[in-house]
Amino acid sequence: MRLFVSEGVPGCLPVLAAAGRARGRAEVLISTVGPEDCVVPFLTRPKVPVLQLDSGNYLFSTSAICRRQNL
Questions:
Q1: If residue 22 lies in a helix (H) or strand (E), which one and from where to where?
Q2: Domain ranges, ordered by start, for the chain
Q3: How far is the C-alpha of 38 from the C-alpha of 20, rounded, in Å?
Q4: Over the stretch 4-22, which tens digit does the pLDDT of each residue have?
Q5: DSSP states of 45-60 as a string?
Q6: Which fold does the domain 1-68 belong to in CATH?
Q7: Residue pair 1/27 in contact by the 8 Å Cβ criterion
Q8: Which superkingdom is the protein from (predicted)?
């Protein structure tokens, strides 16, 4: 999985905490991007945080990302 975060974006702090708790149970690559970088190809506006799953699907809800990383 790959987690995209940006400094200063409020939703990034909880997902980074969840990623820290998930260490050892899941491999998560954390990438810092700019707040204006478009990470999800099918969204017209930039959105972070975003979790790209190994299947290629994207989660861009902070609560959904935190739940996924706690599995």
A1: helix 12-22
A2: 1-68
A3: 24
A4: 999 988 889 999 998 888 8
A5: S---SEEE-TTS-EE-
A6: Glutaredoxin (3.40.30)
A7: yes
A8: Eukaryota
Q: What are the DSSP E strand ranges found in 9-57?
A: 29-32, 50-52
Count CB atoms within 10 A of the CB of residue 49: 27
Shortest CA distance to 19 belongs to which of 63, 69, 61?
69
The SS3 assignment for 63 reads helix
Band (70; pLDDT cuts 50, 70, 90)? low
Residue in the block written with tokens 């987690």: 3
Residue type, 56: G
Strand order from edge to edge, sheet including 58-59: 29-32, 2-5, 50-52, 58-59
